[in-house]
């Protein structure tokens, strides 16, 4: 039985099939769809063997093989950590300083195979690099680094240590970590990197006046607050060829008092275009303190995209750097309409429910995403659902169809058990998401239409 989908008129997907050239690197995406980054949490994990933590292994390889078959112009990998002492969560991929770029090394071979399977069908593969800063869980880092010593309130069931303001030596090390990781991914066969400067993580924290009250060259004016990013990009360019894509994920708005505004985001994009020659900007929004993966206005609900209205204020200044908007898209007509304001469309949740969503959409076999029977205003619920589906595909299973009410009931039941176990896991031994024990697994099949 075919899954339920969002209602949509049948349209010609031709506008979404147009290639997109990135001016500074000269690389060309075969279409306008970008598989946006997710945090899979499927890399190797151990509290006892830190040397073997954060390595892409079979489950992650399976996941990116399937996304590689999904028809996307660009695939952005999930959340690769540049510092092994600051993790977003257990199971993150990690590139420690000094990691060996040599065939036969377990970590390097894992990243190389990840690039191989993701690119095999023609997608460009970009590694998202991240440092979580003060958004590192207390159990993993009790004294996290941040632009300033402004604490993060415990939220989303997580506790955080009080951060310390980064010294100039620490800022230099952070710059080196991003540059090192970029060169590492180039050697592993990636087509580029995306600097994660959204959602309150370290680079975003430097950009926002709510988390950066420094009085030195890294604080104050917007140019000073983006200095770290500019220095990282400069360092990357000294290590890799000009054909290596350098991109960034930014908040278009933070939805909190004193946070980054669309006006500042527009000015920031101008700086990144003119001074850093960034290939593309992916626009998102929100922080841990003020989630934005929901429709803030009725107009955004009608147009599906969470951040499109803010993107319309920002993208006119981008004459050479390309733009993508990610978040909330459900139907082909809405995506095509959004191309009036942005160069490309970022897809995340729909690509976790249906890994070949992009290919099926561009082939005209479908016109919309599967309509999951979840509360889409509940970010944590939909995030855990997506992570659970990724984990299933990692095991070569079909992702659970959450348009089926009985499946939703099973998911919520197993999620309750997972949350209970998570609360008892004081040693942070668990990784990943919900183990779906209430539904019999089905072998992977990308013809779920």
UniProtKB/TrEMBL annotation:
CDD domains assigned to the protein according to its UniProt record, in alphabetical order: OYE_like_2_FMN
Superkingdom of origin organism: Eukaryota
PANTHER family the record matches: BINDING OXIDOREDUCTASE, PUTATIVE (AFU_ORTHOLOGUE AFUA_2G08260)-RELATED (PTHR43656), NADH:FLAVIN OXIDOREDUCTASE_NADH OXIDASE N-TERMINAL DOMAIN-CONTAINING PROTEIN (PTHR43656:SF5)
Keyword Ion transport on entry: no
InterPro entries linked: Aldolase_TIM, NADH_flavin_oxidoreductase, OxRdtase_FMN_N
GO function term, MF aspect, one: FMN binding
Family that this chain belongs to: Belongs to the NADH:flavin oxidoreductase/NADH oxidase family.
UniProt keyword list: Flavoprotein, FMN, Oxidoreductase
Entry-linked SUPFAM superfamilies: FMN-linked oxidoreductases (SSF51395)
UniProt xrefs under Gene3D superfamilies: Aldolase class I (3.20.20.70)
Segments forming domain NADH:flavin oxidoreductase/NADH oxidase N-terminal: 105-300
Pfam families: Oxidored_FMN
UniProt-recorded name of the protein: NADH:flavin oxidoreductase/NADH oxidase N-terminal domain-containing protein
Keyword Flavoprotein (UniProt): yes
């Amino acid at each position: 039985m075919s899954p339920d989908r969002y209602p949509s008129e049948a349209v010609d997907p031709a506008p979404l099939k147009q290639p997109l050239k990135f001016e500074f690197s000269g690389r060309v995406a075969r279409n306008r769809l970008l598989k946006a980054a997710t945090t899979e949490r499927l890399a190797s994990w151990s509290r006892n063997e830190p040397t073997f933590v954060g390595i892409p292994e079979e489950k992650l390889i399976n996941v990116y093989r399937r996304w590689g078959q999904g028809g996307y112009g660009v695939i952005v990998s999930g959340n690769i950590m540049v510092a092994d002492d600051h993790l977003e969560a257990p199971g993150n991929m990690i590139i420690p300083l000094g990691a060996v770029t040599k065939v036969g090394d377990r970590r390097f071979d894992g990243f190389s195979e990840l690039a191989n399977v993701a690119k095999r069908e023609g997608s460009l593969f970009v590694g998202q690099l991240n440092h979580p800063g003060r958004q590192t869980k207390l159990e993993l880092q009790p004294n996290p680094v941040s632009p300033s010593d402004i604490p993060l309130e415990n939220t989303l069931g997580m506790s955080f240590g009080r951060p310390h303001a980064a010294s100039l030596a620490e800022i230099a090390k952070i710059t080196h970590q991003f540059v090192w990781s970029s060169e590492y991914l180039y050697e592993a066969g990636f087509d580029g990197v995306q600097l994660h400067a959204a959602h309150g993580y370290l680079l975003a924290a430097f950009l926002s006046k709510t988390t950066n009250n420094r009085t030195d060259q890294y604080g104050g004016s917007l140019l000073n607050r983006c200095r770290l990013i500019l220095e990282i990009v400069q360092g990357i360019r000294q290590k890799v060829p000009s054909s290596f894509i350098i991109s960034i994920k930014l908040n278009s708005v933070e939805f909190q008092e004193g946070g980054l505004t669309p006006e500042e985001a527009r000015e920031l994009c101008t700086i990144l275009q003119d001074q850093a020659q960034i290939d593309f900007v992916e626009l998102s929004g929100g922080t841990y303190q003020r989630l934005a993966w929901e429709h803030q206005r009725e107009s955004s609900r009608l147009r599906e995209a969470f951040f499109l209205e803010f993107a319309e204020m920002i993208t006119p200044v981008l004459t050479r750097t390309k733009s993508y908007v990610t978040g909330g898209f459900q139907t082909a007509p809405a995506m095509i309409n959004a191309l009036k304001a942005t160069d490309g469309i970022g897809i995340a949740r729909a690509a976790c429910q249906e890994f070949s969503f992009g290919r099926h959409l561009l082939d005209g076999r479908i016109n919309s995403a599967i309509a999951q029977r979840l509360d889409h205003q509940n970010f944590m619920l939909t995030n855990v659902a997506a992570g659970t589906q990724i984990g299933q595909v990692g095991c070569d299973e079909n992702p659970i169809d959450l348009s089926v009410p009985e499946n939703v009931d099973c998911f919520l039941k197993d999620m309750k058990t997972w949350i209970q176990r998570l609360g008892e896991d004081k040693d942070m031994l668990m990784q990943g998401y919900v183990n779906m024990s209430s539904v019999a697994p089905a072998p992977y099949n990308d013809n779920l239409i």
